[in-house]
Each structure stands twice: as C-alpha cells, then as structure tokens.
Design a protein that fits this description.
Blueprint lengths: L3 H13 L23 E6 L4 E5 L5 E2 L4 H12 L2 H7 L28 H14 L2 H12 L8 H10 L1 H12 L7 H12 L2 E2 L1 H12 L14 H14 L5 H7 L4 E3 L4 E6 L3 E6 L10 H14 L7 H10 L1
Bound molecules: glutamic acid.
Length: about 325
C-alpha cells in the first residue's frame, strides 16, 4: 500500500479543484454561514493508527451522518422487527427530503436514511429513551466525551424545518409515527445538530470497518448483525440519490450529511471521514466525494478491488 500521508496530501490537492463547483447548504440558515473552501480528512486504521490533514479539527454538524447512529441505536434497543415494520430497505431514488413516496399506496419511508425514514426512527427512539442516552452512545462511538449539540444549528433547523415538520405530521396521520410529533422532531433536529470533527467521525468509521469493534480497545461497540444491516444500507442508500455512482467511483459503504461531512468504511482496513461544506447537487460534499474517490483508487479501497479489478477500472472510469 502507498504511504498514507503522501496519498492524503495528493488527495487534498486533487479534490480542492472541485470546491468551486459546489455550494454550502442554504436551506438551514445557520449552515449558510460556513466558509465553503474548507477541506479536511481523517483516517483511523483497524490497527488503531491515525492520519489526518487539512481542516480535520474544524467542528461541523453531523446532519444525516447521525442517521446511521440512530439506526444502530434503534436496531439494538428496539429491534429490527419494529424498525423495519415502519421503514423500508430500498433506495428511494428521490432527493433526501422528498415526500412524494409517502403519498403512494405503500406509504412507508423507503429507507432509514432519507429524512422521512430517519424522522420515523427518531420517533421510535424518542418514545423510550432520552436524547442524552443516544448522545452518550454517539460520544462513545466517536471517542470524545465533550461532543455536544450545536444549539444555534438546532434552533435554526427547528425554526425553519417546515418540510420535515409537514412530513412528520403526515406520517403521524398515517400511523407510521406513533410518538408525539414535537418530541420526535426535537430528537431528530438534535441528532442532526451534534457537532463533531473528522477525527471524531473517523474513530466511529474505524469501528464500522473493524466488525463493530473499537480498534484501540478491542471492545465491541456495535452488534455484528446490526453492523451488517447498517453498512448494507450505507452502501445502497448512504449518498442520497447519488449512491449508485458513488458505489462505482468510490465503492465503500458511506454516509454524507448536508453539513459537509462524509464517513466511509473500508472493510477491515480503515475508517475515513472527510469534511468540505461545498455540496454537489445531490447534497454530498463535492470536495469530500473527490477526496474519497482519489483515496479509494490510490489505496485500493473499493469493495470489489482485487489487483486485476483495479487495473481494469482505471481504463474504464
Ligand atoms: N437536518 C437535515 C434535514 O433534515 C439533514 C439532511 C441531511 O444531512 O441530509 O434537512
């Protein structure tokens, strides 16, 4: 394998060029204030070694990345039977905040990573657990006790998230959400507003890569079956309606958020997190996406990359 520090430098240089083509999320007013030129990344290998570069200490809100932790929490504490009686397992092909499919005969959210699905999962958790319980789990996975909710982003989302609000009421009307809607939304907006940096998220991603076990302590933090379900959904639905192309170009289970973060898990190799607030049309960090593509090609991280496959792929795409 090439020297990781060198590849990180090259990846930063390569991916910076794409930032101009992206824009920060503006539909949550607080996110629009961020400098779009930031870019950073962190890696934790399954041996527990850390690498990082650029704006890796800058804190940003998890946004949709939190949907993976909420799913893990719900599967472990509430159970897959209940969770998947409320949300599906299929990519929606629609934008993350679309309500369109909720109006069809099969009125359930397509998967737990679109907003409707994540709000449903948040409702299931909020019904039985305190937000502090969920936050403690997030802190444990990220390996930092001082992780907190960004109150300004939380307020901003809560005051302006009319689409999420209407979705929640619509699903309550249809019996998909059974918990109090305000309680559900408070939980959802808070989990999206948890503030982290790429060092934190690469700790979490390394656990995803290492079969649910934290590399540095050897402690299991995620149940094996739950991990398989979560990573499969990340592979099929983790990058919004760009998940298919991402699977070809990068080939790692991943999850992005409109705050500009992405986590990616190279099976049995390393957990990666990138941050760049300029987003592409699908809502994925444009710099982060290209950063991961570069890393995947240079370090052979694609899930189907045997040596031959690597050679073949460079010719095609
Ligand atoms: N809090 C954001 C929303 O609900 C999350 C969206 C995302 O990161 O995809 O719109």
């Amino acid at each position: 394998m090439k020297n990781i520090d060198v590849v990180l430098k090259e990846a930063l240089e390569y991916s910076r060029k794409y930032i101009d083509k992206g824009n920060v999320a503006t539909y949550i007013p607080e996110l629009a204030k961020v400098d779009k030129n930031m870019l950073g990344a962190s890696i934790v290998t399954v041996e527990g070694k850390r690498y990082h570069i650029g704006d890796c200490q800058h804190e940003f809100t998890m946004q949709s990345i939190s949907k993976t932790i909420a799913l893990i929490y719900a599967l472990e504490h509430i159970g897959s039977k209940i969770v998947f009686s409320k949300v599906g397992m299929e990519p929606s092909g629609d934008p993350f905040n679309s309500m369109a499919k909720l109006e069809t005969k099969d009125k359930y959210p397509s998967n737990p990573f679109i907003n409707a699905g994540a709000i449903t999962v948040a409702g299931l958790i909020a019904d039985k657990y305190e937000f502090e319980d969920y936050l403690a789990f997030t802190r444990r996975l990220c390996g930092r006790d001082s992780i907190e909710v960004d109150e300004n982003v939380y307020k901003s989302e809560s005051e302006t998230g009319m689409l999420n609000r209407s979705m929640a009421f619509f699903m309550k009307n249809n019996g998909i959400i059974e918990t109090d809607v305000e309680k559900t939304l408070e939980f959802y907006f808070k989990m999206c507003s948890v503030k982290v940096n790429t060092d934190d998220l690469s700790n979490y991603a390394s656990i995803l890569s290492y079969g649910g076990v934290e590399p540095k302590s050897g402690i299991r933090l995620i149940d094996k079956e739950v991990l398989i379900v979560t990573k499969s959904l990340m592979a099929t639905c983790g990058m919004y309606d760009g998940s298919g192309e991402f699977a070809i170009r990068v080939g790692m289970p991943a999850k992005s958020g409109v705050g500009g973060g992405i986590i990616a898990s190279a099976e049995n190799k390393m957990g990666i997190s990138v941050f760049g607030p300029a987003l592409d049309v699908q809502g994925n960090s444009i710099g982060g996406y290209h950063f991961l593509e570069y890393l995947s090609k240079e370090l052979g991280l694609h899930y189907f990359s045997g040596e031959l496959a690597q050679k073949y792929r460079k010719k095609v795409i």
